[in-house]
Amino acid sequence: MPNELASRLEPIVAAAVTTAGFDLDSLEVQQAGRRQLVKVVVDSDDGVGLDEVAEVSRTVSAALDENEHVLASAYTLEVTSPGLDRPLTQPRHWRRARFRLVRITPAEGAEYVARVGPAGDRSVRVLADGRLKDVSYQSVAKAVVEVEFKQPPADELKLLTAQEPGRTEAETQGEEQK
């Protein structure tokens, strides 16, 4: 029942979250005694602050109240942003992790740590072991952001911003000369 309920609630919650200017990352509905626990995880390219979580919570709550026939019972709403340990599963997750260290477990081969660069629709450019590499999302079994307590080295950031994916060095250098 909760999974079916989550499927029916998703368009309602997604519309409310989008109206508030955020992306719906996940929606989960669980039975909690006589009440339903509605867990909503929201994200944004600019991150999500505490005040923004409160704003989204009010917007989603109003949408759920307007559609109380779908929920058909009392509920507790929990709105949060994704944790640091959230796997990078969509291109937008990779875009939001730009310049962060990520532990990548490929579908084939050994796990490695790389710094994230520009992310496209099908692949992301990473810096691993001092070399730039384009990694297709399909080739990644799992990727998670690594906690880092210091600023990334400037030379790594420069390498990651020097050339966007899908462009040749000649194109990039031609623009730098203009």
From TrEMBL:
Belongs to the RimP family. The keyword Cytoplasm applies. Residues 155-178 are annotated as: Disordered. This is Ribosome maturation factor RimP. It comes from Amycolatopsis ultiminotia. Required for maturation of 30S ribosomal subunits. The gene is rimP. Residues 166-178 have a biased composition (Basic and acidic residues). It comes from the Bacteria. Pfam families: RimP_N (PF02576). Residues 12-85 form the Ribosome maturation factor RimP N-terminal domain. Its main location: cytoplasm. Keywords: Cytoplasm, Ribosome biogenesis. It is found in: Cytoplasm.
